[in-house]
Input
Amino acid sequence: MGSQGGFGQSKEFLDLVKSIGEARSKAEEDRIVLNEIETLKRRISEPDIPKRKMKEYIIRLVYVEMLGHDASFGYIHAVKMTHDDNLVLKRTGYLAVTLFLNEDHDLIILIVNTIQKDLKSDNYLIVCAALNAVCKLINEETIPAVLPQVVELLGHSKEAVRRKAIMALHRFYQKSPSSVQHLVSNFRKRLCDNDPGVMGATLCPLFDLITVDVNSYKDLVISFVSILKQVAERRLPKSYDYHQMPAPFIQIRLLKILALLGSGDKQASENMYTVVGDIFRKCDSSSNIGNAVLYECICCVSSIYANPKLIESAADVIARFLKSDSHNLKYMGIDALGRLIKTSPEIAEQHQLAVIDCLEDPDDTLKRKTFELLYKMTKSSNVEVIVDRMIDYMISINDNHYKTEIASRCVELAEQFAPSNHWFIQTMNKVFEHAGDLVNIKVAHNLMRLIAEGFGEDDDNADSQLRSSAVESYLRIIGEPKLPSVFLQVICWVLGEYGTADGKVSASYITGKLCDVAEAYSNDETIKAYAITALMKIYAFEIAAGRKVDMLPECQSLIEELSASHSTDLQQRAYELEAVTGLDAYAVEIIMPADASCEDIEIDKNLSFLNGYVEQALEKGAQPYIPENERSGMLSVSNFRSQDQHEASIHGLRFEAYELPKPSVPSRPPVSLASATELAPVPEPSYPRVTQNVASVPSVSSADPSDLRLRLDGVQKKWGRPTYTPSETSTSTSTSEKTVNGVTKVDAARDTIYSKVRDTTYDSRKPDAEIPLEKQKLAASLFGGSSKTERRASTTGHRAGKASSHVIEKPQASKASDKTVAEKTIVQPPPDLLDLGEPAVLSRSPSIDPFKQLEGLLDSPQVPSNSNHGAAGANKDSDIIGLHAETAGSGPSSGIVNPVPTNKNDLDLLSGLSNSTTNNALGGTPTAHSTQVSKGPNTKDSLEKDSLVRQMGVTPTSPNPNLFKDLLG
Amino acid sequence: MIKSVMVMNTQGKPRLAKFYDFQPVEKQQELIRSVFGVLCGRADNVSNFVEADSIFGPGTRLVYKHFATLYFVFIFDSSENELAMLDLIQVFVETLDKCFKNLHTILDEIIFGGQVLETSSIEVIKAVEEISKLESASNAIALVSKSVSGWRSR
Output
């Protein structure tokens, strides 16, 4: 065969590819492919095909199958090819089978043996190919057949093989966690592999394992942090750099893992702060991958125990993302914002206009993400605007999947935050009207229940108002063509139940409408059933009220039609209606009491009201009733079924499935735990030693209670659990000190943010001409209300004290604020005009307290308090230095051996740890500085804010109604 | 986890399709078609991300990159980072740019069982070259062929 194009493929094949590429229609392409299949079918079954030719046929089969045609006639040849000794052919065979077969295919059984053999091959490429196939082709049942070999490969001399072996084990774990339960320790062990690539690969399974069970891996926090530190400090080989970033994919994985481990765990989180902060600082935000790492940092920060400084950095990055021109970054920014507002909701306000821009962006993905964010930050103050927006968007899209989702979100938000009954009904109407068929039927039932029960308050008046507004709106809507069935059901039910309740609408009008509905949707039986029952209710209420009923002619004909319906249900309803109309008022009122849909119906299961009748019959000599289960001997048709079951239970022939066998797995974990250290199933001499080392890495900080405790005695461990250390008291005091510090910091952060908000509100007096008024309104309505809660929370102790201290310098302050505000107009997200009133309202009442409080505090001027802070910070930092020094010292002295007994400097974890600690100690002082720096503008801000409070006190106040009037028209 | 990698041209014809969870042939075609349907409806200057829950089930996302007449598409779940996936496409494309052959081999070196294996295109090329070197060596020994530089599928 002549090799064309330099790829060793025949001309025939290249022609095929070319003709497919040039095919003008799907039909033409299909014709070519079918032709090809015929050729291949014929050729492939010829005897004695040269192997190279066969290889090409197989590749052509792969191609054919990629184009969507069945190539199963050639599978067996692909399987055969895996048996070949030649590397090229074997790899081709493996490639083909991984693409063709799934793990449960019948032919797999023919491959398992080959895989087993190849995993033991001397040629590492063959091993790699086999590992690749293992991932795709081995299922739960065949895992044991290859597991020993794969585990053995964890110690292979080639790092590429070790890496793939770890990935294969990970795959096994995904397919059947129990099959590799006893091997989990191998992942921990490989975390200390000499090769960074292998270490990086280990992070994938560890991530999965930690997702499932966080607590068993808390001990690894220190290791992960130190690895991340080393990576970020570029101590990996240069080849791991990507676009000038040191091993970004490993950084991302590690940050993900840290996010899991630090979630809700203050102690673990504290270990992470420094390194995450470092990455925030170092990360190159001009490259895509740098931003990927930054985004991951934000995710991590929003997941771990909150740290104000990190949150600040995260907010800065988010601001940069949102301001960027790249849609990708905007998307990430919105996503990150959605994460961060869980911990610090006030951040959203800084970005209101950016968010609104995203909402109006033509990019659908971005829009949806933004709706997700809005969904997360909905509260009663902005629900109307958000839900309105959502509905508008819902109407505009065609994607049913997303329509359903957004509809259910609208419903959820409306139910949760509805400001008024009227609005709620209107909203639900819109949702049903436009997405009715996509909404879960439960939502409709929920709506009916809500209308019937009211909003739970004991205010009958409001409830009846709700109902009459519902009735009114439904009567308006009912005439529209093509309403969704679910919606019509709701309409019919409500009209029947409450249509005539308030007496505004005449019965004949409603019944006319109902008849129209039944006629217009004559092939929907459910609607007809709802309609006729509604008719019955209305007539019943009319009769009960003593009014004369004139049945409309169309109603008559409807009844006639339904009485002859094929559906027994409709028939029954029609006959019932006829019967009811023939009754007198008294009887009707009993069978159809008005507004009784919420009454509980008591069901007398014993049918006790028939007792008298039964007794009479018995007296007359009737046979007494024998319960069904006692009549086993009788062979009447009616109880045949039950008898059958009865028999079955006697003879013991069971038709239901047997109970699942109790898996042997549960008994394993304890065993495996033991085996992890002693009974290592892996034939590897160094195993127990190394495992211990792994455990000892973290035990620098948190003592491992089992075996390492003795060694650590006498070592002062401030990071450890206090129970094991003699210096318990000192530890606890230091932490408490920190917390105090933390709290004050949080407050400080709040101050800054809050005062920024204030700035914007202040700005609104001289609105920026560039921002369209509409957007400002929207911003105000979306974000305006949120300062409410924030405000209240922050007017306490320390903050009040601070605020008070500024009052002395008030005149000067207001001037300064004016200036800075003017400057800020350019930089900061511009203002919301309509938000004006709100903060003023809110600030008025709480502002009384701080000012009163301050009179007592006036004499404690600002400077001392600030220095106090510095001192606290310094204290803390020196503390940290102490800690690090100690740990660094205690590392070697406590006899904890280097975990990696090799000389590769850059990967040596423990040395890295001690190194990092010294670094940390050095880095301690700068941090202190930066805190103070960040406090600088802070005080200024609070000055501004203070002056603002004064100014705003005068402004008229009545916040939202106006605004909504504008927005809702 | 990465669920699938697809390369298709701007007319929706698949050039490479790899699924890390098994999908029957018909399903594969359907997925490729619906992915193409989503992609061709997107303008040039919008983001590279699409939420793909309607195609691949809840929580899945899709990142694509458009080069000349080709779409490179990665589909993955919430355990991956969108921007990072975008860069992984970059790695893949850069690698292809350096040696355009053995697409599947290259992809196998980058993604393994749905997890990111290698992210340096230089390392990938090194591995691929080593494979083809050894392959031709074994070819020479087996006396099957003199000049097969490797296999490929496109």
User: Anything to note?
Assistant: The mean pLDDT of chain A is 72.
